[in-house]
Amino acid sequence: MNFKTVIGLEIHVQLFTKSKIFCNCSTAFGSEPNIQTCPVCLGLPGTLPVLNEESLNLALKVAVALNCEIAEKIKFDRKNYFYPDLPKGYQISQFDMPLAKNGELYIISSTDKSLKKVGITRTHLEEDAGKLLHKEGNYSLVDFNRTGVPLLEIVTEPDINSPEEAYDFLSRLKSILKYLEVSDCNMEEGSLRCDANISVQPEDSDKKGVKSEIKNMNSFKGVRDALQYESDRQIKQIKKGDRVVQETRLWDETEKVTMPMRSKEEAHDYRYFPEPDLVYFEISKDKIDEIKSVMPELPDKRKKRFIEKFNIPEYDAAILTSERSIADFFDACALKINDYKLISNWIMGQLMEILNEKKIKLSELAISIEHFVELLKMVSGNKINSSIAKDVFTEMVESKKSPGRIVEEKGLAQISNEDELQSIVENVVKSNQKSVDDYKSGRKNALMYLVGQVMRETKGKANPKIVNEMLRGVLEK
Ligand code: ADP
Ligand code: ZN
Ligand code: MG
Which of 199, 211, 248 for a ligand 1 pocket mutation test, highest count of atoms within 8 Å of Cβ? Predict the structure, then answer.
């Protein structure tokens, strides 16, 4: 029997506000424990929450980007549960009147690679809980700095059908959230967290299987691995004749297994009721229009424009637009030089390589668009060959000098002048009789070796195309 996998994700995103959602405490990450707290976020009696408008604005940007229906009126509710990192004994969240519903995000289907819609069930605002630090020796410490940091919860429909699709969904969502500058989406620091619901059902059945919910993954890869494990586990369970029980399971990153944590709670366990200390909020059409007017061009649209306007391969366009800063850099270069494939090659090659290597963002790399474009113009104008250009690029990053100056100081300009190359070519032919014989007896590869020798003699500065032609001229005489 073949099985179909059904997955729905619940994602929590910390919104990039300066202060918390219901008080003025800072949201900065990494401070000394418990210094970013006040009576409101510590849940002391007699305090009142006040909604941070910026958190609502950021949440609305996401709702617009995900094509959601935005509520005209929202309210907040208390979700009651006791946990040591939740000092009030309840979390202010949204229950039956969420900020937005019925959105969508398109992913690539893992079966036929076509575009596939994943429905967004809802998205709502809530406050984050604190953080427990479990210590060896059976005790825990609590840090309330995170308590009250604004969170946006995004819930998907069970439209995802494989671990790869879940991975693709998360990558695309992250890219959008970063374009919108609403969150840094750092899973290690907890600013993006994902719980995954998964069930399996016989391929020919319409009836959904019993789902489990997996928590505790700290990377997109972790989500994918956990889902693969869990799908296999559930299928095995059913094939054995056992039932899958509805429960919450924890992913163990070291052992690569999921373990039962608790039976799943239901909405009624939380005794939701309206938060009496906050009013209803109306979201005006003007406000939504204002947000729409400042929306950036989002990754999918930008990718499409890159393919159409610059005539670069889809593969390039996808990579170049996955991050806004990189796409902005490409756009800026494209205004100054029209060899778009050359720009693309250099950004995807040298530039992104150095960012990966140094583990830094583009904004942290000391390279200006002017210098980058100047370097590309030297390449396309044959002033330097591409292997020298790579060295110049490395030097540019280190010294911040312009490529023109580096080439001049180091005497790296390409030699394309045949007169200058003539004697070198002749010498190489004279001193490599064996390669010459090889070439003449039909081993055309020998030419490559001879070109290499000329390149060596000129310290890489010769124009390889011209050397190639000159050598052939001499050998085929
Ligand atoms: P619950 O009431 O248990 O919280 P919901 O219906 O609210 O369940 O859904 C929570 C998440 O679980 C959503 O992301 C949804 O898409 C997903 N989900 C619901 N049913 C299934 C299922 N049978 N298999 C996998 N995921 C599911
Ligand atoms: Zn506070
Ligand atoms: Mg639910």
Answer: 211
C-alpha 94 – ligand 3 centre gap (Å): 12
170, 197, 199, 263: residue to mutate for ligand 1 pocket, most atoms within 8 A of CB? 197
DSSP 349: I
Confidence label for 172 from pLDDT (cuts 50, 70 and 90)? very high
Neighbours of 49 (CB within 10 A): 19
Asked if residue 6 has its Cβ within 6 Å of ligand 1, the reply is yes
Span 47-59, average pLDDT? 97
| Residue 456's CATH number | 1.10.10.410
Instruction: Indicate whether residue 166 lines ligand 1 (CB < 6 A).
Output: no
What average pLDDT does this structure show over 38-48?
A: 95
Residue 322 is assigned to a structural domain of this protein = no
Pick from 286, 311, 339: which residue ends a domain? 286
To which H or E segment does residue 74 belong? Answer: strand 73-74
Whose CA is closest to atom 17 on ligand 1? 8
- Report the domain count for the chain: 2
CB neighbourhood size of 335 (10 A): 9
User: Which domain range does residue 221 map to?
Assistant: 3-286
Model pLDDT for residues 137-148, shown as the tens digit of each residue: 899 999 999 999
Check pocket membership of 208 for ligand 1, CB cut-off 6 A: yes
Over residues 382-403, the pLDDT tens digits come to 888 888 899 999 999 998 899 9
Burial readout 424-441 (b: 16 or more C-beta within 10 A, e: otherwise) = bbeebbeebeebbebbee
**Boundary residue ending a domain (286, 314, 343):** 286
Asked if residue 238 is part of any domain, the answer here is yes
Picking from 452, 444, 454, 461, the residue whose alpha carbon sits closest to that of residue 422 is: 454
186 compared with 13, residue with greater pLDDT: 13
State the DSSP code for 241: T
Record the pTM: 0.86
By the 10 Å C-beta count (0-12 exposed, 13-18 middle, 19+ buried), 332 is classed as middle
In a domain, 294, yes or no: no
Residue 121 lies in a domain: yes
Q: What is the mean pLDDT of the chain?
A: 93
